[in-house]
Amino acid sequence: MSGAICYKIDINISAISDYRLFYYFKTMLSERFTTALTYATQLHANQVRKGSGIPYVAHLLGVASIALEYGANEDEA
Predict the structure, then answer these.
(1) Which of 42, 65, 70, 54 is nearest to 15 (CA)?
(2) What residues pair up with 48 in beta bridges, in sequence order?
(3) Nearest CA to 69 among 35, 21, 31, 34?
(4) Average pLDDT of adjacent 10-residue blocks, the chain of 77 residues
(5) 3-class secondary structure for the chain?
(6) Which residues fall within 8 angstroms of residue 77, CB to CB, at 6 or more apart?
(7) What is the distance between the alpha carbons of residues 3 and 77, in angstroms, rounded to a whole number?
(8) What pLDDT does 53 receive?
């Protein structure tokens, strides 16, 4: 039972980290990109990843951050 509780805590920490990442993006990217991030966050607000319960928007933010890290521009991310 304690393993399940720890797992739930890990998910919550992950969700908090994703929102911090969102606000980090917001400070360094254009208004157009942050508008798209806001829209995606609202659109996928009630969706979670299969089997893990992690908010789906975490996947979107993760892919965008990897793309930007490897030199993609805002349109590609």
Answers:
(1) 54
(2) 55
(3) 21
(4) 41 54 65 83 86 86 84 84
(5) CHHHHHHHHHHHHHHHHHHHHHHHHHHHCCHHHHHHHHHHHHHCCCCECCCCCCECHHHHHHHHHHHHHCCCCCCCC
(6) 33, 63, 64, 65, 67, 68
(7) 36
(8) 86
Q: Would you kindly state where each structural domain of the chain is located, as residue ranges? A: 2-69
* Cα 51 from Cα 61, distance rounded (Å): 19
Dist. CA 57–CA 40, nearest whole Å: 7
The identity of residue 32, as a single letter, is R
Q: Name the residue with tokens 């975490």.
A: 58
Q: How far apart are CA 71 and CA 65, in angstroms?
A: 10
Give 57: exposed, middle or buried? Use CB within 10 Å, 0-12, 13-18, 19+.
Answer: buried
